[in-house]
DNA sequence: TATGAATGAGGGTTCATTCAT
DNA sequence: CATGAATGAACCCTCATTCAT
């Protein structure tokens, strides 16, 4: 009946899918519910997405694209590696707070369902970004000497885990705390220095 | 066929369940497959576990218990907070390498499926352990002053994420690298010190 | 195949369910068979009835409603209590002959499966109807003095049992015979009278 | 372990089966539960009864035999047809009150499950008994003239229905009421007589 | 474009029955 | 005689997907 532009419908479906997938995970989410939430018929969903898998992948790509664009912007406009890293961490922290369920969803499905390659590519890009920051930081003497590539992986891993804690266990983490933790580590420098 | 020792069968089921659940996640795993993998009939599974949920929960409890025991032991026998933390991290790293799929499974299902309370309790205990280490470290001047409770959460989160990276993306992380990362942070101390 | 008119399908399912339930009772009847008998897929059944229980209850309500309407009509149009009772008995006798299996089904499940309250309510209404007839009959001197309420229960019980015999054991009972039995009893009145 | 005489075990099983079958009907009753209630192993049940069906049939035969013996005795010792019928009705009424569930069970399963022939034979015998009473009653002028065979069926049907009402709906029926109902019918004899 | 009735494979679970001990 | 672990067919129900309208 509603002959709105297809794009309209597509958006509604994606929004609904995000809700439903987030709420119950990929496997338990069912098309009927997504269709209902989108105010569209079941068949309608299949007009825009070939199947459940493609719908999920579509969400995933959307979000990863947005995230990639945002992070690149942020990093580019930073004045120092430390600031870049700071902002990068902050951005992800804030995103996690806003989209807890989505975070859960993707971590949950990451590594199980299809779309692995897409996800891996995204993570590789993000890792390279961090790597670039670290390399710059070392060159400018801001960061201590370390293997940038491996350290980038550690930073990414840490961030992922902390984001997960936030989404999963409602842990409260301020950007400041996280920043300090990543930059300073645990040791007492005086002690260390001697 | 083997009509004796229910305990034997129970073990086989648990082992099979670990495999199958790990391989495809809770929702997609099916009892039939678990039974087959265990070399047992479908009905046989229900002789030892009331239902799918209980089977999963059983696995979970087992592993969390083992892990709790191991970590406590390790921490108790350490000579200094730094060493305790080191060993704690190392243990989890090694566990992650050995049981990639299991790690994935539980992280994946954490926060979605039942058993939330059990998991939360486990994480709380682990966090307290880290907290104790940190508090001791600060008191002895080994660690820098910080809020032990919040920092413990960060350490746990970081560890979780890195373990996840290992399990998920085959990232290689040596205990030494991780230790350095957590203890020292990224900053160059010279820079920091002045 | 026939993609139209859900009502059509619903009717076919109900008819099939009546057959199958009647033939083997609630517990042994299986949805698969009902679906087959209705010329519909398994899932199709669940499009119209939430589950097996609801399907059964649906049948039950339908029939009880029809029966209630019919009996009330009959009683209202009778010219005397004796005639009303006569017609009431006749109607049930004829129904029993036509729907043997259905009678069996409901008697069989009465008191075991769910829907108890619905059935009880129906029986209460029917009993009240008979009670009214008897009260009227006593007032007009047609019937002998008796407790209308208790006697109504006896009439209902008797009828139920005789209907059961018809359905179960193919006993042949003519309305005339039944009428005479209920109205006159066994005793010889001459004997009685003195 | 318990090496009591087999007869002991057999009795315990029968008693347990009566309970469980009565409580949930044949289809839903399960051997495990019966075995448990009998304080015997599952396998143990199969030592005494070839299968579920035979166990049920065994119960049935027991009860029908007892009932047949009792009714015959009662009828033989009565001094008049009216008294015989009275006592017969009374006995069944009392039995119904004491063994509500059992009554339900057999009525419920009558006509569905196996054992039809056994049941039919029993009912035929009982009917013949009543028939004999009625024939005697007519000959002695106690009962009004009627077809003894058909009337016996009506009496049996009535009784069955009333017993059912008692078992099913907790209807209260005294032997006196029932007797009067069956013997006198509803009509006012004065009216009738003229 | 849009609908939603229809399909049917497949999942979790139960339970009568067997048989090695 | 007795046990109870083991079997597997069969049940109820869900849901991704199709297609006539």
Structure class of chain A: mainly alpha
SSE order of chain A, as H and E?
HHHHHHHHHH
Shape of chain A: elongated
Q: What share of the residues of chain A lie within helices?
A: over 70%
- Rg of chain A, please? 20 Å
* End-to-end CA span of chain A: 77 Å
- Report the count of strand segments of chain A: 0
Protein chains sharing the most extensive interface: C-D, 61 and 62 residues
Question: What is the third-level CATH name, the topology of the largest domain in chain A?
Answer: Tetracycline Repressor, domain 2
Low-confidence parts of chain A, pLDDT < 50 over ≥5 residues? 190-194
Mean pLDDT of chain A comes to 89
- Count of alpha and pi helical runs of chain A: 10
Looking at how many chains there are and whether they match, the oligomeric state comes to: homotetramer
For the largest beta-sheet of chain A, the strand count, sense and barrel status come to: none
- The total number of structural domains of chain A is 2
The CATH superfamily of the largest domain in chain A turns out to be Tetracycline Repressor, domain 2
CATH class placement of the largest domain in chain A: Mainly Alpha
Q: What share of residues are in beta strands of chain A?
A: under 5%
CATH architecture of the largest domain in chain A: Orthogonal Bundle
Can you give a write-up of this model?
By secondary structure, chain A is mostly helical. The first copy, chain A, folds into 2 domains: 1-49, Homeodomain-like (Arc Repressor Mutant, subunit A, Orthogonal Bundle), CATH 1.10.10; 53-193, Tetracycline Repressor, domain 2 (Orthogonal Bundle). Helix content of chain A is 78%, strand content 0%. Chain A contains 10 helices and no strands. In chain A, helix 1 packs across helix 6, helix 4 (52-76) runs parallel beside helix 7 and helix 7 (116-139) packs across helix 8. The longest helix of chain A is centred in the N-terminal third of the chain and has 25 residues, at 52-76. At the C-D interface, helix 1, helix 6, helix 7, helix 8 and helix 9 of C face helix 1, helix 6, helix 7, helix 8 and helix 9 of D. The structure holds a DNA duplex (21 and 21 nucleotides).
């Amino acid at each position: 009946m509603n002959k709105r532009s297809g794009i309209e419908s597509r958006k509604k479906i994606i929004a609904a899918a995000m809700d439903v997938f987030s709420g119950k995970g990929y496997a338990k989410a069912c098309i009927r519910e997504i269709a209902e939430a989108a105010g569209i018929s079941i068949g309608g969903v299949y007009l825009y997405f070939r199947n459940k898998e493609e719908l999920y992948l579509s969400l995933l790509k959307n979000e990863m694209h947005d995230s990639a664009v945002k992070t690149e912007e942020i990093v580019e406009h930073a004045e120092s590696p430390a600031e870049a890293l700071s902002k990068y961490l902050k951005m992800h922290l804030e995103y996690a707070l806003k989209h807890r369920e989505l975070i859960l969803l993707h971590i949950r499905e990451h590594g199980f369902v299809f779309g692995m390659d897409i996800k891996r590519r995204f993570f590789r890009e993000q890792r390279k970004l961090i790597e670039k920051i670290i390399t710059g930081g070392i060159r400018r003497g801001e960061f201590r000497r370390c293997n940038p590539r491996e350290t980038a992986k550690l930073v990414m891993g840490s961030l992922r885990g902390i984001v997960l804690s936030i989404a999963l266990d409602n842990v409260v983490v301020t950007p400041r705390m996280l920043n300090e933790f990543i930059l300073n580590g645990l040791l007492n420098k005086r002690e260390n220095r001697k």
